[in-house]
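Possible regression after last week's pipeline update?

I re-ran a chain I had predicted before the update to compare outputs. Posting the input and the new output here so someone can diff against the archived version. Not blocking, just want to make sure nothing changed silently.
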Amino acid sequence: MKISRRAVSAGLASTGLMPLSAARAQQRYPGNQPIKLIVGFPAGGSQDNVGRILAERLSVYWGGAAVVVENVPGAGSNIAFDRVAKGPADGTQVLIVPPPLATNEFLYAKISYDPVNDFTPLALVVTFPNLLCVRNSLPVKTMPELIAYAKANPGKLNYGSTGVGTSPHLASEMLKRMAGIEFATVHHRGSAPTINSLLSESVDFAMDNTTSITPHARAGTIRALGITTLKRWPLGSEYVPIADTLPGYEALGFTGVSVRAGTPKTICDRIETAVLAVCKQPGFKERMTEMLAEVAGSGTVGFRTFLAAERDKWGKLITDLGIRVAN
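New output (post-update):
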């Protein structure tokens, strides 16, 4: 059977891997400079992984434009935020937005950028909840049992935190408040050491992004008790929402895209359109599903509203509890 060139192009377009010549005329990003996606974490984490897959897809969408990830870790992503806030307002530096953009202003006594006015939110790419897991030898199998155990043994449980002010840390503080329990918090520097402490049973329980901790739970090396979504999560329907025990409990990680404020609207529109187009590609959704991240694909208005809600929610908790990170 003879297949037309048009049919082949249509098929490739549906995957987002359209030939460069077919994409170039309409989708080429303005200018010839490399486009940097700035990630405020080291390589290998969830933000970096999403950023690299997004960079690959944007490069194709823009007809072969050079789109690269630059990791600028340190100070809870503050260095990366400052880089973009003080960088060129021409769309050549695009911030991969993690949860700290909504929380660092409350955690740090001083930051060198304005998290609201120095950035233009363009798109919410993915969200991913946290999964609460316990060491296998802990004699609890459900969230109600964990809460009851914590109340019977106040302050004796050790919680493994991925770091002061991180999404899993703040989720644990919200758990304390809503469940009326106390436990000791052992801070680590990131996901890997936290999960290792749980696997070695150096801590009793931990929460982390589903992208990092779920493979261990599914392997049976740790026991999952609950997920930080309001309803059953489609990518992990076997996990019971903590909200079933504590109504209203929700804590989501996320990855979005922003640029420096003052970037021309035409450029902002092009980036937003490209990112949202990538979010609709079946191939991109498949890659995110493999990472246990759910594609959001909301544009600038939705992302701005989302960030404002995150600031309100976590800012109040951080302020009420007096959580601080040393500068």
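Follow-up from reviewer: compared with the archived run. The chain has two domains: 5-127+254-321, 129-244. Marking as no regression found.
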